[in-house]
Structure formats: structure tokens, C-alpha cells
Amino acid sequence: MTAMAATVVHAEPSFLEAGGRTGLLGWILSTDHKRIAILYLVSMMSFFLVGVTIGVLMRLEQLTMGPTIMQPQTYNAMFTVHGVIMIFLFVIPGLPVVFGNFFLPILIGAKDVALPRLNLLSWYFFMTGAVLAVLSLFTGNGPPDTGWTFYAPYSLRTGPNVSLAVFAAFVLGFSSILTGINFVTTIHRLRAPGMTWHRMPLFVWSLYATGWVQILATPIVSITLLLVILERFFGIGVFDPAKGGDPLLYQHLFWMYSHPAVYIMILPAMGVISEIIPTFAHRTIFGYRFIAYSSVAIAALGSLVWAHHMFTSGISSMASMVFSLLTFLVAIPSAIKVFNWVATLYKGSIEIAPPMLYALTFIFLFCIGGLTGVMQGALAVNVHLHDTYFIVGHFHYVMFGGTGIAFFAALLYWFPKMFGKMYNRRVATIAWVPLFVGFNMLYFTMLILGVMGMPRRYYDHLPQFHTGHVIATVGSWFLVSGLLLLLGNFVVALFKGEKAPANPWGGISLEWQIPSPPPVENFEEIPTITSSPYHFNPVAGR
Amino acid sequence: MTGSIADAPAAHRDYGGAKIAMWLFLFTEIILFGGLFILYSAYRSKYPHEFHDAGNELNYVIGVINTLVLLTSSLSMALSISAVQKGQQRLAMLLVGLTVALGAVFLVNKYFEWIAKFHHGLYPNSPDLLKRAPGEVLFFGLYFSMTGLHGVHVIAGMVLLSIMLVLLARKRIHQKDYVKIENAGLYWHLVDVIWIFLLPLFYLAA
């Protein structure tokens, strides 16, 4: 696809070896986008494992009726902390800060992002937010117990350390805004010659849409969270019904960000899948423009559906109907993507390598997550399902089955490029079995429990839900063993993996044209782009 | 864009990129205040009379004086950028210094205004305030939050401009490289524009 397809491996040191400083300082002071990506990867995976541990403990609590391993207050703190860690420290930053940072400049043929120092600053804000979130667990009157949504008026009155946790979320939001600004600027300014908008890889399109959502939505939650802090310290009254304030306005402001945030989470995941599928189907992506523009459409429509979280909160029936309609509309661009991925597979020469296996799993799980979402968009059904396990099952299908699995697919796809090492493919495939089985045991059971009436965030359950809870808990064990096998495989590969070639998968986008791991400034010579990123030779794949 | 690592910082001098990034950041600031403006409009439509009564208690003379101070500071800010572009380094420093000083005047006025309110027993959650109608409680809650947040932005702007002053003195900003001070100026104008909206919403609400 480019003038430099015949790049040979040269003597230039990779970004892992080169650099002015050595040791830890060479990492935490580096403005190289690739090193920052790895800083994010390491810190995020640590938080992810903490979140997983808390999740497993919660499932363990539900293994029997009555107290099993903890008290109700601990359980409340656990679902709050699980949510805060997973949402703010893993799923929202997730794909953009790791794979976006690493591959955005490479995919558009640039040497770095537009604002490298701001990029490093974002990581410092991220870590500051993370440290504050952890501190909130051990200081004050103990971990917050409000749920990750910090709903007023409870969050204004409850004893535990809500202010610090909320402030942590504020700082993390700021980090997210800076990343969004950086990416949008980079895409506007640093595309290689010939890289027109319609020659950009689809992952770049999805990062572009995500960047705009980060810029336009995050400040709303920032101000909302600041107001919660002001309420707690000074009692200004804006969300406090005792002073004439309206808690419903808190919910509006919170979801004005937090629903678009769902698309911050899922759009880059869709972008990753759009990269993986053509590579392993050895076929040009079907409907490039539809996939690209549907990212933008999802970002736009997704900003107008927030009140579907509030159908039972007491908004007017007119508002409910409008938001219900808009919610259904978001399903259209999402479905366009799914149809195009499947159409890409048609008559392709499909190779089920580990990244492809996880990408196909994404499509399957995301379809369940998406369709259960459409069910909740229907007003009458929503009243029955609201605040039940159905919701919990639904968003885990989207967030974990969608974004989480796409994150692993991306790691499987790009790990050889990032570290220059190849993991054990067979282990990665074997790990998929318990992961997939456990996932569906855990979360599909939740969907059923929810329809039966099991409320979310309850410490205990009634006898009729017991079988379901046992199945879900056992499923969580499968899930975790699959996860550990998958992640352990990467750790082993880092130390003992064999050297990865520059292009292990036969990909044709720009990142596969440079050595693994990439040299410091990515390209010896900025490439000139002459065609689409998925221009597979129809014969080459056979 | 070819060559060695030494060329990598070339991206730093991408004026267009720096400008785009700054404007995007300003969008986020507008939306940050946007959340508060939404709250203001929701509560004002719910309690129009209380907002009217409470607005009467703010001294619009101080409000207008502060508006004039900020507008003048925006003028000196804009002039300082022109001075840099013409290579008049000393004049630029003088004008940035004047901008910072005017920012300080604004804050001092604000300080006395707030203190006077506190003496009348008007501060968030005060016993006197809680005796009033809910709409007035909310008016003053929003008044203190919004002018407070704006004040924080004035302080941030003053810090930013002080840094610009140092950079000007060290010739890091000069006739050929002035995007930093331009961006700092944009931020200062934004702070100004937000105040232009706060003035009628609070001081002239009556």
C-alpha cells in the first residue's frame, strides 16, 4: 500500500532500547508515545486485576444465602470500588490510552502525537487520580458506598469518603480530556502525505470519534462531581431537596456525560475489530465508509440518549418517549458495523488465529449486549428490568464482552509489534475456552436472574434465585482461570517468547511495515500513502 | 519531516496544532461552565420570583466595575500579543504585567464583595440563608459556586500569564515564536467572556 513496503530490518535501536535516560526514569519521563502507552498498559492491568479480584469476592459472597464472607457495608463498598476502578481506571481509558497512544501515530504515518509532553502529563493525571481513588479506600470513614454513579442525595449525606473518590474521578476525567484533545489534534495535523480522511485506518476513525466525545462530554461530569464536593463541604443546595434543589438534575448531568462515556468505551473497541477482521479474512473491509461514518453517528446519537437511565426516576412521559426513540436509533449505526464485519468475512480466506478468535467472540458477545440494550430502551420493559441483574448482565456483555474482549484481541494482535516477542498461540487459544464458557455462565445467568426479578446491588438473595447465583459464581471461577492463563501467557512471552517477525499476521496497514518493536521515531522516512489501508491483493491471501 | 531524533520536536512548533489543541481545550471549559448554566436556567425557570428578589441584593455597581476591569485587561492582553509580533519585547512584558494586575484588582473587588455578603450572614448553608425561600438559597448557592469557579479560573489565568512573563523575559517567546502567549491570551479572553455571561445572570437578574 505504500512506497516503503520493502523496508528491511535495519540497525536502528528499538524504542525499548534507545533513549537518553536509562532505567525507570527513562520511562516515567519519556515523551515517546510508545513508552507512554506501555506505562498505561502496566498501570491499567494492575488496576484491572484489583477490579477482577473485587468482582470475584462479590460473586463469592453470593454463593450462599446470608452472610458468606463479608458484611453488608463491605459489600456496598465493594460494588462501588469495583465500578469506580473498572470504569474510570480500565474501560474508559482502556483502548485509547494504550493502543491509541501506541498505534495512532504509526497508523497515520507520524513520529509521535501532536503534543507529546501533554501526553505524558495525561499519564501523570491518570496516576494521580488512581492514587487518590486508592487513598479514598483507606482514609476518612472508609470506602465510598454509593455505587459508581454517586447519586444525590445519598452521596451528599452518607458518611464514608465520597469526596475523595469523587475528586479522583474528576482528575481522571481531566486526564481523559487531555488525551482526547491530543488525539483529535494529532489526526488533524500529523497525517502522512497522501493519508486523506478516507485512507485512514478505521481504528483511527474510531479514535477520532472517541476524542470528540471525550472533549465534549467529560467536562459535564467534571462540573457535576465538583458540585457534589461543594455540596458535601459547603452545602450549596443545588442537588439537595431540603434546600429546594433537585436530585433529578444530578442524574441528568451525570448521565449527560456517563452515557456518552459508554461510547468512549465501545467505539475504540469497534475500531480494533475493524482492523483485525480484514487482516485475518485476507480481504478488503466491506463498507469502509459506512463503518467510518457510523463511528461518528454513534458518537453524535450517543450524546442524545442519556435520560434512558432515568425512565423510572420521574421524568415526564413525553421526555421518556423521545429518549426511548433516540435510544433505538443508536442501534442502527451499531448494527451497520456488525453487518459490515460479517460481510467482510464472506468469501474471505479466514484464518482463526488468536486475535481473530477473540475478535469474533467480540461480535458474538457484543450482539447479546447490544440487543439486551435495545430491550431496555423500550419503556414498558424498562420499568420491569430497571435496577435488576438484567442491567448488570447487559453492561457486562457490552463493557467486558465488548471492550474487555476487544482489549485482549488488540493485545493479541499487536503484542508482537509492541514488544517484539511472540506469545504461545496455542495457550492463547486454550485460554479462550474457560474465558468464553465462564463469561456466559456468569453474565447470561445474570440476565435470566434479572428477568426473574433479582435486584442489583443487593447483599443477599432469596431462595428462588439461589441456583442462578451458584451457576454465576462457578462461572466467575472459569472466567478468572481463563483470564489468568491469557495474561500469564503474555508475561511468559515477555521473558521467554521467541522473537516476533515484523509482520506475523500478514497485515498491510502501516504498523506492519516497520520493525518489531518499532524504532524510536517509528519511520525512517515518512511514508507517502497511495491507497486505502485495506487494499488486499485478492490473490495474496490464498 | 525527515531526519533523526533531533527533528522529533519539530511537532512542538506546529502552530496550527497548538492552536487547535487550545481551542479544543476552551470548548471543554465552556462545557464545564455549561453544566452550571444548565442548573441556573432550570432553577431560574422554577423559581423566577426568588431569583428576582435575590438578584436585587447584589451590588451591580461592583459587578459593572469588575466587568470594566476585565474588559480592559483583555485589551491589554490583546495589545501585548501585537507588541510581541512587532518585536517590542519590553512593551509586551509591560502589557502582560498590566493584565495580571487588572486580574488582581478584579479578585480584590470580588473578595470585598464576598466578605460583605458573609457579614450579612449570606454564605452557603448559613442559618440566615436557610431561613429564606428555597429559590433564594439556590440563587446564592449558584452565585457562590459560579463566581467562585470563575475566580479560580482568573487565578489560573494569572498564573499562566506570570509564566508568560518569565518566558518573555528569557526570550523564549519572541517575534518568531509567540504561539504560547497567543494561547494564554485565548484563555484569558475566555475567562473574560464567561464573566460577561455571569454579570447579567446574577447582578442584572432583578
If you compute it from the alpha carbons, what radius of gyration of chain B comes out, rounded to the nearest whole angstrom? 20 Å
CATH fold-level assignment of chain B: Four Helix Bundle (Hemerythrin (Met), subunit A)
CATH C-level of chain B? Mainly Alpha
CATH topology of chain A: Cytochrome C Oxidase, Chain A
CATH-defined architecture of chain A: Up-down Bundle
Q: Helix count of chain B?
A: 7
Instruction: Give the beta-strand count of chain B.
Output: 0
Q: How far apart are the termini of chain B?
A: 59 Å
CATH homologous superfamily (4th level) name of chain A: Cytochrome c oxidase-like, subunit I domain
State the order of secondary-structure elements of chain A, H for helix, E for strand: HHHHHHHHHHHHHHEHHE
Largest sheet data of chain A: 2 strands, antiparallel
How helix-rich are the residues of chain A, as a percent range?
55-70%
| Name of the CATH architecture of chain B | Up-down Bundle
Helical content band of chain B: over 70%
Count of individual helical segments of chain A: 16
Q: Work out the strand percent of chain A.
A: under 5%
The secondary-structure element order of chain B is HHHHHHH
Provide a concise account of the structure shown.
The complex is a heterodimer of chains A (542) and B (206). Chain A is mainly alpha-helical.
Tell me about this structure.
The complex is a heterodimer of chains A (542) and B (206). Chain A is an all-alpha fold. Chain A has helices at residues 23-28, 33-61, 72-91, 94-107, 116-138, 154-157, 162-189, 202-234, 247-281, 288-302, 317-345, 354-377, 379-385, 389-419, 425-452, 466-496; strands at 421-422, 498-499. Chain A has a single domain (31-513), classed as Cytochrome C Oxidase, Chain A (Up-down Bundle), CATH 1.20.210.10. In chain A, 66% of the residues lie in helices and 1% in strands. With 206 residues, chain B is mostly helical. Chain B has one domain: Up-down Bundle (Four Helix Bundle (Hemerythrin (Met), subunit A)), CATH 1.20.120. Helix content of chain B is 79%, strand content 0%. The radius of gyration of chain B is 20 Å and the shape is elongated. At the A-B interface, α5, α7, α8 and α9 of A face α1 and α6 of B.
